[in-house]
Amino acid sequence: MPTTDPAAGFAASDFAAEPRVTLDDAELQTIAVLGLGYVGLPTALALHAAGLTVVGIDISEARLAVVRMGRPDLLDSDLARLDVAREDGQRFVLTDDLGALESADCVLICVPTPIDARQNPDLEPLRAACATVVEHARPGQAFVLTSTTYVGCTRDMLVKPLAERGLIAGSDVYVCFAPERIDPANTTFAQTAVPKVAGGVTPACVAAVKPILETISANIHVVSSPEAAELTKLLENTFRAVNITLANEVAEAAGALGLDPVEVIDAAATKPYGFMPFYPGPGVGGHCIPCDPHYLLWQLRDERMYPAVISAAMQGIATRTTRIVQRAAEVLDLHGRALRGAAVLVVGAAYKPNVADSRESPALEIISRLRCRGALVALYDPLIGGVRIDGELLLSLDELPDMRDYDLVVVACRHDITPPEAFAGAKVVLDTTYRLPAASNRFVP
Length: 445
Description:
The chain is of the alpha/beta class. The protein has helices spanning 23-26, 40-49, 61-68, 76-86, 124-136, 153-164, 203-213, 226-256, 261-268, 292-302, 308-334, 362-372; strands spanning 30-34, 53-57, 92-95, 106-109, 142-145, 174-177, 196-200, 220-223, 343-347, 376-380, 386-389, 392-395, 408-411, 429-431, 442-443.
């Protein structure tokens, strides 16, 4: 007999006797999306496009204003969906009223899970969001946590507090963890084409939530518990962190041997099995890779476990920008110029090409370290108006400047709208992207 013990997992066979729940017979037609950031907003738009009524909730009035004006940083396909949704005042509602959670049949929690200055999880945004959801919960609702977090968080922040209110997961309410898999600016893999992992507290929880998830993903991979789904997400981004660190080390090894690392990685990638290409760069940014592995390391410390590979990879990521700045000093020295007092142009403040997002961008730390060593730094990023460096606002130049005006150009991130030939006239270029054409003035880390 299938287990319904909230503290236990379940096997795939447990679903054999569960009737398939459809949107019609479950009448789950109003979905609240709490948090309208890079995950929540595309998810809300996909749900609306699938025919569901969506209530988008965010505590930031500034963010809501940007969405209402149709100006968030989204893929063109999602901007088109937003244009349609903004015209639909009946089935697409934006609000900062947390009380609107009570009207939803299902609540998706899509809030940030950052780390603090000591690289420990900052759980306050998630804790506050979950507490609000529990406060407004009512019998019959389903709750899906999508934010990346530690193993056991779904039970700690949703299942147990709901039970304290007399709402038992699997009978009174339905609780799942289904981690987000959204890659900003990635046009190769649409959100609906990417499989989604879901772990419910009981089989009934998955049965209640699965029809909703199926409207935004063609393939739902069910795992035995929320904990299994939580660790799945941590594994995905820890895998990327480890391999990016390896790619950076290979790049330095290739440089020492007089080889092009991208050529070598591309050649290795022709092997149809046993290899996945990762490429070197100035560091990692965005919300996932710089943060998520630290959730796992933080939790394992309590278990007196110190995974050497993961720890070394995150140390490599943490020191990458130091290496970039040291290389900048070396390159200038080769040309008879000290870093102190040098005019340096940093191109790209975004954490990845073609996004207007500078969260955790390695460019920010590169700029800070260059300034600490006395460089006179200017910034050019056509998608980002300015960034805060050590509490000071650094504005981007309005137009692509004359590269000849700078002793060194550091390419931290190049958007497609800035052509490679734009750097041809520079005195010296440090190409941390490894993607500019080979030239006498081009150096790599």
